[in-house]
Amino acid sequence: MKRQLISLLVLCFGIFxxxxxxxxxxxxxxxxxDLIFQVGANGRxxxxxxxxxxxxxxxxxxxxxxxxxxxxxxxxxxxxxMEDYFEPALGITHNDGNMATLxxxxxxxxxxxxxxxxxxxxxxxxxVYPIEVKLHYVSFAKENVIKSWSEICHRxxxxxxxxxxxxxxFYFESPRYFLTEFSGxxxxxxMMTSQELQFGKKIIDTKLGSRAAxxxxxxxxxxxxxxxxxxxxxxxxxxxxxTGNFRFTFEVDNVGNLRVISGINPYASCYELVPGEVxxxxxxxxxxxxxxxxxxSRNLHDWARHYQVKDGLGARLTLLNNWENxxxxxxxxxxxGLMKEAKHLGVDMFLLDDxxxxxxxxxxxxxxxxxxxEPMKSKLPNGVGPLVEGAEKAGVxxxxxxxxxxxxxxxxxxxxxPEWVIHQPNREPYYYRNQLVLDMSNxxxxxxxxxxxxNLMTRHPGIAFFKWxxxxxxxxxxxxxxxNKQSQLYIDHVRGIYSVLERLKEKYPNLPMMLCSGxxxxxxYEALKYFTEFxxxxxxxxxxxxxxxxxFSQVFPSQVLCAxxxxxxxxxxxxxxxxxxxxxxxxxxxxxxxxxxxxxxxxEAVKNFKRLSPVILQGDFYRLVSPYETNHAAVxxxxxxxxxxxxYAYDLYPRFGEKLFPVKLQGLNPVKNYKIEEINLMPGHQSxxxxxxxxxxxxxxxxxxxxxxxxxxxxxxxxxxxxx
Length: 724
Ligand code: DGJ
Description:
Blueprint: H1 2-23, E1 25-29, E2 33-39, E3 45-52, H2 59-66, E4 90-93, E5 103-112, E6 117-126, E7 131-140, E8 145-154, E9 160-173, E10 177-183, E11 191-196, E12 200-205, E13 216-224, E14 235-241, E15 246-252, E16 257-264, E17 271-273, E18 279-280, E19 283-289, H3 292-308, E20 319-321, H4 323-326, H5 332-345, E21 349-352, H6 385-394, E22 397-402, E23 406-407, H7 412-416, E24 436-437, H8 443-459, E25 463-468, H9 489-507, E26 513-515, E27 533-534, H10 542-553, E28 562-565, H11 573-580, E29 584-587, H12 596-618, E30 620-625, E31 632-638, E32 644-651, E33 673-679, E34 695-697, H13 698-703, E35 715-723
Parallel strand pairs: 20-21, 20-29, 21-22, 22-25, 25-26, 26-27, 28-29
Antiparallel strand pairs: 1-2, 2-3, 4-9, 5-6, 6-7, 7-8, 8-18, 8-19, 9-16, 9-17, 10-11, 10-13, 12-15, 13-14, 14-19, 15-16, 23-24, 30-31, 31-32, 32-35, 33-34, 33-35
Helix pairs in contact: 5-6, 8-9, 10-11, 11-12
This protein binds (2R,3S,4R,5S)-2-(hydroxymethyl)piperidine-3,4,5-triol (DGJ).
Residues 323, 353-354, 401, 469, 471, 516, 518-519, 535, 538 line the site of (2R,3S,4R,5S)-2-(hydroxymethyl)piperidine-3,4,5-triol.
């Protein structure tokens, strides 16, 4: 019976395919977006539409006829060396030295994965060289997200050289294009800047290898026709899932069309593809919104939680970290004390940071010890075991920091295995933070790195969390392992990391891990398949942090953005906590150094956060007042059932006598009534908010709003809004 059903489905599917091939139109849709391809009379595949979804399917036929597909431009995956004069998606040097490739449509296949998800696979082939490319498009209907990647393989006699290998390429036709990029450096991540694109190319890329996104993050926003705005206008938000060198190319051509090419950065990365091997590119993930980036962010947040992030719908652990508090200066007794502080605070976990390992080369600063993952006897004479037990006794979980892909030259590991380390054989090394990067293209190194976590877990199954750091870009680029295939290092290195992470995920599927890279220099959706969260920045000065969180929130849900209350900044503990509570709350500060009132405030904030975390971490996020445009900021998380919302209002540096405007909420149910209560108040303080304790309709709150801002500098409020 089951077999018959399958045969019937295959038959129906075959008929559908035939019809599609007959019409030579391929429609990839979400609930709100249509991406339409058409096979031209010349057998090549062209993009005929990417935009809001058509109401009538029949309009697509008009589109196919109307857009008289030109030979130049709009080809879905153009090869290099033919008549397209702009940046190609694919570049191959064939066995005979010829550098031209031209792909023709062969077939398409549609796989329904579930009621919400569908995958379309399009096969293209070169008629002159035995090259095959499969383009994959997975559409998530409800979330309005499409992800796409390509697979390249060949049957030439010897390896071919890939010099371009885009994940995807899309075209836009609009009078003006506006690009928002996210760039920065250590402690100033995700700074948003915008520019209008003109003729020619704008490239956002990185060549840093491991700490790859230190200067540019792997996502962008594209305003089609208008500058990117929060609640209006057609905008595409795109991101690439690749924890290494990436490149986005935006090229406006001679007639004003824009092509956007996303993929691994081909810089110094020509790839020798052997016959039969499949080169799979990273996923390019995008959403198209007709209502500005607010909507686009919520699409990505929903998609990420449901489909991409490790344990995306699960709870998260609040924690006390020791890095900003003790740095490298701690011992067992101090740590056991901090675990008690964690318990006193009410958080779930104590997280031990850098500095717990290394004996011949003790890790007492950042100049030695990386690579030697044995507990340092002078600090921890009894090893890690008593720490795990100590945490258990204190009533909290225990997490630990590692930086597994790195090595200090002052380490046993480097002395024993210099051949495992990326460095030049014939030049003086250049060190970034006194360290070098292990060669993850080498399977022996992969085993070693896997073993760091696996050994810790085997010896101490009670370890509940890892913070996985990566502080150095790849310097001195040479792999002793890859020998004469150096141009594959950047790619094989990242693949090596994924292979380790995959093994770890398989063995420890429920182990939460935080991704960190000297702050937020690793922040991509491929890594987040293996990590439950990431550390956006070492900068926790709360005003700066509002900008950083604002930036990352464009693409990531609050649930994956760790935010800690630290000693950075001179503002009140309340202000620092209110900022951290917008994302996944943690602390990295000496609790015992705080006043009794501050401690009581933090305890209350932790309770509030835990109580409200289904809304804060899983709800819909609306950015209401931008710190980029005003001297204030406001955001709100609204629970999926619209029964509860949490509003955050921050006064940054208001000017004297500045006119203050009420904040209009979004996402509430207009016909429901909501009670407003200010929470996170310092002990003994009463709310002076006029709206405190009052009830308003959702409609009123969204049309008129409430007065939450003040003229005070670095002042904050958190309001709990509850449907009656
Ligand atoms: C960089 C991270 O961003 C910090 O949080 C901390 O873990 C240090 N590394 C430790 O060296």
